[in-house]
């Protein structure tokens, strides 16, 4: 009879999983026994944190989850940071791990990779964490995971399989995949919301990452309302490039805050209204005084951060379509003129924190206009969160939101490149953040991915250094010598080039598309000139 571990592979395929990121270990070897014949693609990162970041980037770029195969103990604590980032940003990820034998759990016997309670440890960075007690329970537990991915606020799900369960005989299982749909808003609630929006004089739309899968409907709704729209970082591209109603991520800035405060009706679609999108000054200054309509697939989220006057537990796309049916006529509110005035007041490209990077970011878009840009926490990414415009959703994301981890950019970009191989992908990283997951360059080389790794090299942790200076704190631990990235690239059988001008960067980006693997583009920040 077939082993439990092998049945797991069959069920993953049945649920639509195509890619597994994992590092084999003695505790997960049974998961690999049938992997070559399963039809699943396996990618071996150089660190479990990289596996999680790759799965994150893959999901954000494609809208589909990937799986991670992770050993017990240190493997799980290594991936926990990546799970925390995915949980904060509502990114689906399936983490399958081993755990010690059932009869040894919680006994503290000093066994290999032992944690006092691994399931409990990982429950804090997952939607749910489950220990599989019998092979027969496998379809049910996986069904729960994919129900979360399809119909609720997504995030990481962790399933651990004890060493004595993995090789157990598992009866033939008919891979039954339940069609799960997100909740639908009642007609009465849609009618109420439509009435408020129709009567509004100064409406405002707030677009969050929950709009990524409903771009057409959301864009049409914004246009029908003729209302200014603020987009969070994870909603960038929902309205496309240069849309006359798109204010971008300006909720933390004075002109954006004033617009929000004076809006008489605010429609918040798929956004948690959290600090890293609406209060980057960390002073609690974002206020909504008009009536607030919130739409989210997480019931608890409807009550967090900003109290709603009308809360709809529903899929954003379905609500947008429902409102369009009830708002048949284009409103005439001079929305584009209002947005133009606010953009002029914001003057983002001239702002102190943005201006040094504006020409640099323009070059990325000009050289590879269809690229997905995946960022780490670094100066150009922070600036791009304000001014970068993308032609579609899922083309700009980074770890400067939510959990705010370093080391995300490179492995997440690789995950995105594996998920959408037809599209150029740029990893936009700082030299400090890149050192966290530098080893994943070899993973990209092994995969043969033509990934452009653009390094904003300011010899250390530039953003923290600047913050220390502003707070009159002595610089300590932030001035770090970086390696010679061009020589490093050569040692890893990759191409590397050092640039300091727009023309050289443009040429290097264009050439990266023809490379058989990753290209390291070392941008000398202190010499950069347009």
TrEMBL record:
Obligatory cofactor(s): thiamine diphosphate
Which residue range or ranges hold the Thiamine pyrophosphate enzyme central domain? 191-320
Q: Which residues are in the Thiamine pyrophosphate enzyme N-terminal TPP-binding domain? A: 5-119
Q: Which residues form the Thiamine pyrophosphate enzyme TPP-binding domain?
A: 388-523
Transmembrane region(s): none
Enumerate the CDD domains for this protein.
TPP_enzymes (cd00568), TPP_PYR_POX_like (cd07035)
Task: Quote one Gene Ontology molecular function term.
Answer: flavin adenine dinucleotide binding
Question: Which SUPFAM superfamilies did the record assign?
Answer: DHS-like NAD/FAD-binding domain (SSF52467), Thiamin diphosphate-binding fold (THDP-binding) (SSF52518)
Write out the entry's keywords from A to Z: Thiamine pyrophosphate
One of the protein's GO biological processes = L-valine biosynthetic process
Q: Which Gene3D superfamilies match?
A: 3.40.50.970, TPP-binding domain (3.40.50.1220)
- This protein's GO CC annotations: acetolactate synthase complex
User: Into which family does the record put it?
Assistant: Belongs to the TPP enzyme family.
Q: Please report the name of this protein according to its UniProt entry.
A: 5-guanidino-2-oxopentanoate decarboxylase
């Amino acid at each position: 009879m077939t082993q439990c571990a092998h049945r797991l592979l069959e069920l993953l395929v049945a649920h639509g999983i195509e890619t597994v990121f994992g590092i084999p270990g003695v505790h997960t070897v049974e998961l690999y026994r049938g992997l070559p014949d399963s039809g699943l693609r396996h990618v071996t990162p150089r660190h479990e944190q990289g596996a999680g970041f790759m799965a994150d980037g893959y999901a954000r770029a494609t809208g589909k989850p990937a799986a991670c195969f992770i050993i017990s103990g240190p493997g799980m604590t290594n991936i926990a940071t990546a799970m925390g980032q995915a949980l904060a940003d509502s990114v689906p990820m399936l983490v399958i791990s081993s755990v010690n034998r059932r009869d040894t759990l919680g006994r503290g016997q000093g066994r290999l990779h032992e944690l006092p309670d691994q399931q409990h440890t990982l429950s804090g960075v997952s939607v749910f964490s489950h220990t599989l007690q019998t092979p027969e329970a496998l379809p049910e537990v996986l069904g729960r995971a994919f129900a979360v991915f399809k119909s609720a606020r997504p995030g990481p799900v962790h399933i651990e399989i004890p060493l004595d369960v993995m090789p157990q005989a598992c009866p033939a299982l008919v891979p039954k995949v339940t069609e799960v749909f997100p909740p639908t808003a009642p007609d009465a609630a849609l009618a109420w919301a439509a009435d408020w929006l129709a009567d509004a004089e100064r409406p405002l739309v707030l677009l969050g990452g929950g709009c990524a899968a409903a771009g057409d409907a959301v864009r049409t709704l914004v246009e029908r309302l003729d209302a200014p729209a603020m987009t969070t970082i994870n909603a960038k591209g929902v309205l496309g490039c240069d849309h006359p109603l798109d204010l971008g991520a300006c909720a933390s800035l004075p002109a954006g805050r004033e617009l929000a405060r004076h809006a008489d009706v605010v429609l918040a679609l798929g956004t948690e209204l959290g600090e890293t999108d609406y209060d980057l000054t960390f002073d609690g200054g974002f206020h909504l005084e008009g009536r607030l309509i919130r739409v989210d697939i997480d019931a608890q989220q409807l009550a967090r951060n900003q109290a709603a006057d009308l809360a709809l537990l529903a899929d954003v796309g379905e609500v947008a379509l429902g409102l369009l049916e009830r708002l048949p006529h284009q409103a005439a509110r001079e929305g584009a003129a209002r947005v133009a005035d606010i953009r002029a007041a914001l003057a983002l490209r001239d702002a102190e924190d943005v201006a040094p990077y504006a020409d640099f970011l323009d070059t990325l878009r000009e050289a590879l206009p269809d690229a997905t840009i995946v960022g780490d926490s670094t100066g150009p990414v922070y600036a791009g969160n304000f001014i970068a415009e993308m032609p579609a959703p899922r083309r700009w994301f980074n770890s400067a939101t939510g959990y705010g981890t370093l080391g995300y950019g490179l492995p997440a970009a690789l995950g995105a490149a594996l998920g959408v191989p037809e599209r150029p992908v740029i990893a936009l990283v700082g030299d400090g953040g890149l050192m966290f997951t530098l080893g994943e360059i070899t993973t990209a080389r092994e995969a043969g991915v033509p990934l452009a790794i653009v390094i904003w090299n300011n010899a250390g942790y530039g953003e923290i250094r600047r913050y220390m200076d502003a707070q009159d704190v002595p610089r300590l631990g932030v001035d770090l010598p970086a390696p010679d990235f061009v020589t490093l690239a050569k040692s890893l059988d990759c191409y590397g080039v050092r640039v300091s001008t727009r023309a050289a960067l443009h040429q290097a980006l264009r050439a990266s598309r023809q490379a058989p693997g990753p290209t390291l583009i070392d941008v000398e920040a202190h010499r950069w000139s347009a």
